[in-house]
Automatic annotation (TrEMBL):
InterPro entries: Aminotrans_3 (IPR005814), Aminotrans_3_PPA_site (IPR049704), Class-III_PLP-dep_AT (IPR050103), PyrdxlP-dep_Trfase (IPR015424), PyrdxlP-dep_Trfase_major (IPR015421), PyrdxlP-dep_Trfase_small (IPR015422). Belongs to the class-III pyridoxal-phosphate-dependent aminotransferase family. GO terms for molecular function: identical protein binding; pyridoxal phosphate binding; transaminase activity. This is Aminotransferase class III-fold pyridoxal phosphate-dependent enzyme. Gene3D superfamilies: Aspartate Aminotransferase, domain 1, Type I PLP-dependent aspartate aminotransferase-like (Major domain). It holds the Pfam family Aminotran_3.
């Protein structure tokens, strides 16, 4: 064993995938309703995506950010239009944690403060400030704990206003819909109240759309259900459909200057080609409409299963709540029914994050498998 052993793993070795299907080294087919932690958006090995990446690496895969990169510019242009933020600018990096790290840093540069408001059960990544803003002390090392972060209950406007009134808050970071924490989300009243209060106090509002973005919620970003405009929006996961890429969308009120942010790999030719292809597929195949149609069908079928006590989330970012820990259920689903699903820090929640391109038939297969696993 030469790998640093930090992941509890299922004994399955995928070697091939297409759309929402995955095959292991023994030829067994699986239905992927988890997308490797919500990463697969356009579908595994989509032919247009494969073509875009293959052609790009055959030309030039990487050069640094000190030369012109028209693919990066095309990506920024397409992303700001597709997401409804035409006047925002894009900074590219390599992962979700890195996106949040840069967003928090930008906020601090902006108003010169350093205290962060985050929310109970939040997950923002595993690096320095991102992990400090994550509500899970077991993954925060003493080195990271030096950041000033206060965790408030979601949807408690009064607690929020009391904290903001202290006058030392730099930024507020909140997920569009909580992912790892278990699919809880702010109400429209809450999102609107915090957005308005941040604006008045010159506190930077960061929307972490790393898991809930890129169409997964049924809108491009989950916060767009609440009619607010954050100052900074962070992206990763579905953005590259498996190719590592992250980014932050930045409001025009922030002025860029040379060296303010930077990275070696972020936005390289290959990553940009992958992300551009994902946006094209989402648009060409109307995947956001598909999310809404299939998400509704999924909820309808889920509602007919007596063991499902509650359905959380939106679009194809869903959680099925049971009255028992789902660890064994997930094992039955993967080993007996050959279906990938996810868990959350809420132990009785089965997390569903399939590719955005799934069909009604895929949903039928999922529920047949779920019913079998519940009976077994
Ligand atoms: C909401 C949210 N933010 C940030 C991250 C961190 O992303 P990454 O693992 O790419 O660093 C995750 C990952 O699960 C996430 O769900």
């Amino acid at each position: 064993m030469s790998l640093f052993n930090v992941y509890p793993i299922y004994n399955i070795t995928p070697v091939k995938a297409l759309g929402a299907k995955v095959w292991d080294d023994k030829g067994q087919e699986y239905l992927d309703f988890y997308g490797g932690h919500g990463v697969i958006s356009a579908g595994h090995s989509h032919p247009d995506y494969v073509k875009a990446i293959t052609e790009q690496v055959g030309k030039i895969g990487f050069y640094s950010n000190s030369i012109q990169n028209p693919i990066q510019e095309a990506l920024a242009d397409k992303l700001v239009k597709a997401s409804g933020y035409p006047d925002y600018t894009l900074f590219l990096c390599n992962s979700g944690a890195e996106a949040n790290e840069n967003a928090l840093k930008l906020a601090s540069f902006h108003n010169g403060k350093k205290k962060v408001i985050a929310f109970k059960k939040a997950f923002h990544g595993r690096t320095s400030a991102a992990v400090a803003a994550t509500d899970n002390p077991s993954i925060v090392a003493p080195l990271n704990a030096g950041h000033e972060v206060v965790f408030l209950p979601l949807n408690d406007i009064e607690a929020f206003n009391i904290e903001l009134a202290k006058g030392d808050i730099c930024t507020v970071i909140i997920e569009g819909i909580q992912g790892v924490g278990g699919l809880d989300q702010g109400t429209t009243e809450f999102f609107q109240a915090i957005a308005a209060a941040c604006k008045t106090a010159d506190v930077v509002l960061i929307l972490d759309e790393i898991q809930s973005g890129y169409g997964r919620s049924g809108k491009f970003f989950a916060h767009q259900y609440h009619d607010i405009k954050p100052d900074v929006i962070t992206l990763a996961k579905g953005m590259g459909n498996g190719f590592p890429i992250g980014g932050i969308l930045i409001s025009p009120k922030f002025k860029a200057s040379y060296g303010l942010l930077g990275t070696t790999f972020g936005g390289n030719h290959l990553a940009s080609a992958a992300a551009l292809s994902v946006l094209e597929i989402i648009e060409n195949e109307n995947l956001i409409d598909n999310v809404n149609t299939i998400g509704t069908y999924f909820k309808e079928l889920a509602g007919q299963i007596p063991e499902v006590k509650n359905i959380k989330g939106r679009g194809l970012m869903l959680g099925l709540e049971f009255d028992f820990d789902v660890t064994e259920l997930r094992k039955k689903l993967i080993y007996d029914e050959h279906i990938f699903t996810g868990n959350a820090s809420q132990k009785n929640l089965l997390r569903i994050l399939p590719p955005l391109s799934i069909t009604n038939e895929d949903v039928d297969v999922f529920f047949t498998g779920l019913k079998n696993a519940l009976k077994a």
